Amino acid sequence: MSQLSIKKGIVFAIGLILLVMSIGSAVLWSVKVSLLNTLHSYSTVILPNSVALESSLTEGIQLQSAARGLVLNPQDASARKNIESALVKFVKNTELLEQTARREEVRQEAREWRRTWQEKLVPLAQLIIKELDAGNVERAKQLTTGDLVANWRDLKVQIEKRIKARTESNESRSSCIYSRRP
Q1: Residue 50 near residue 174 (C-beta atoms within 8 A)
Q2: How far is C-alpha 18 from the chain's CA centre?
Q3: Cα 13 to Cα 55: distance, rounded to the nearest angstrom
Q4: Measuring CA to CA, which of 24, 85, 102, 106 is 20 to 30 A from 8?
Q5: Of the given ranges (5-19, 36-50, 110-124, 157-171), which has the lowest mean pLDDT?
Q6: Are 71 and 133 in contact (CB under 8 A)?
Q7: Beta carbons of 94 and 113 less than 8 angstroms apart
Q8: Do 101 and 53 contact (CB within 8 A), yes or no?
Q9: Are 82 and 66 in contact (CB under 8 A)?
Q10: pTM for the model
Q11: What digits encode the pLDDT tens for the residues 132-168?
């Protein structure tokens, strides 16, 4: 073998190594960008949406529980505070969901839930408190176990359906991330 063919072999090998390193760098860069985009999506959309959905559900459950507690003990100041807090926090949670949702369908659901909450559940909660303040415990009990429970149940089913869809979507996204692992 001549010196020239050894030099050509070395240059070819170096060129091949540089090509492989360039391709590897491009793949690593692509993975890094993809992971950063996914992390950004999780922190700005998925996590806030999941928290807003779960918190909305929690506030509805809190409203129902506090109303029942207040009917049992109309002097329970903490039950009154819990009702007032749930009424406000549910609205804030649905506003957050509407602001951070990427899909119009989810934003529309958040608006609809908030409208239902404000038009049906807020007035019912206020009426229950008014009836209790007037000494009409039986009427407050009927409103709580009847109208409040029924209206909340309808809304709860819708929220749980969205939570299920969100969970399935999150699991799907997570499986894509984890499947890229070596």
Answers
A1: no
A2: 46
A3: 60
A4: 24
A5: 36-50
A6: no
A7: yes
A8: no
A9: yes
A10: 0.76
A11: 999 999 999 999 999 999 999 999 999 999 999 988 8
Is the Cα torsion angle 141, 151, 117, 169 positive or negative in sign?
positive
Distances (CA, A) of 16 to 9, 23, 24: 10, 11, 12
Which residue, chain included where needed, has tokens 């709860």? 156
pLDDT value at residue 174:
58
CA separation, residue 117 to residues 89, 108, 125, 167 (Å): 11, 14, 10, 24
- 25: its two tokens: 């760098």
d(CA 42, CA 26): 24
Helices 149-179, 47-72: crossing angle, 10 deg rounding:
150
The span from the CA of 130 to the CA of 80, in Å, is: 11
Q: Which two tokens stand for residue 123?
A: 């007035």
The more confident residue out of 15 and 107 is 107
Q: Where are the beta strands (DSSP E) in the chain?
A: none
Spatial separation of the C-alpha atoms in residues 94 and 102, rounded to whole Å: 14
The tokens 């070596």 sit on which residue?
Answer: 182
Distance CA 30, CA 41 (A): 16
Separation CA 123–CA 179 (nearest Å): 49
Token digits of residue 95: 């506003």
